[in-house]
Amino acid sequence: MAAHKEQEKHKEAPKENFSYTEVKTLLAWTAPGRPFRKRTKQYYLTSLLIMLFVEIILFLFSQYMLMFVILSLVFVAFALATVPPRDFHYRISTEGIMVEDHFFLWQELYDFYFIKREGAQALHIRTHAFIPGELTITLGGINEEHVKSVLLPFLPYREYIKPTFMEKSADWLSKNFPLENV
Q1: What is the pLDDT of residues 89-126, one digit of tens each?
Q2: How far apart are CA 84 and CA 72, in angstroms?
Q3: Which of 17, 59, 118, 139 could be joined to 37 by an S-S link, Cβ 3.0–4.6 Å?
Q4: Which residues touch 179 (CB under 8 Å, ≥6 apart)?
């Protein structure tokens, strides 16, 4: 009987106590899905020669599975370097960030910073979850300061992010052993 009276109280509760905020789009744009730069023939030739050298060494040590892994990684690298990305629709609202049809709430996001990759300015947003870990959003023609002013009320901005060991290694390799002359 007491449970029935509790349900009656909830039914009679005035709906004025609840306040709903309107979801507003603060910024929306369309840009490529990832930073992209058209590669020259020298890039492909150098990559093939390095792959061939590594494959010969692996063959001498009878590492056939590792040979297959190296071959598949080079195939993926060539596919990503050949096919330009399609345009994605990005939207920043009062509830979070939408990338195509994936929505990320502000509570799921950690902080943001900007990095220039492949000659294009990219926004990086780190997440609390391990996967995806980080959203990379190309800005296209959007001004970096405008995006920063829209995101600052919701997320902290990092001017400097300490590069990881892998990033330092990749930068060192690309600087000392370039696959193509730029």
Answers
A1: 999 999 999 999 999 999 999 999 999 888 889 999 99
A2: 19
A3: 118
A4: 42, 43, 46, 47, 50
